[in-house]
Amino acid sequence: MSDYTHFDKDGRPVLVDVSEKKTTKRTALAEGWIDLPQAIADVVSQGGVKKGDPFSVAELAGIMGAKKTPDLIPLCHPIRIDNVSVRCELLGSSVRIICEATATEVTGVEMEALTGVSLAALCFYDMCKGIDKGMVIRDIHLLQKTGGKSGDWNAKERYGA
Questions:
Q1: Range 79-84 average pLDDT
Q2: What is the bridge-based pairing of β-strands 94-105 and 83-91?
């Protein structure tokens, strides 16, 4: 078991020691999608969701989710987040969700950005499920990250997309 970073030599979970890592500015950008049945797309585009504006509520939920990441993901380091923004945009009958997180820390903010997208998507679903439960949350992934020991990473460079 000693080859695992999140387990000690006896196989017990541990928080990785990051005390020797350098503090650097780190950013992460994540994306996800919700495919909507046409009935929801129509109501959403006209601002007629009975619970309220699903875009602003989902964006707020995404920010809150990013801030709670270490409470939701086991062994994820609690970090001081400098900035989180979440944007939801209706594109045809799909909602694109983007979350950007920034921190000057010793560990990255990829999990915060991904959690932000995930919580925004779940909240949007909750806001609209009374209209139709046939929404599909899909393709939550990291678009890019900067900073830290591993350097910059970009999905376009990796996957060409």
A1: 97
A2: antiparallel
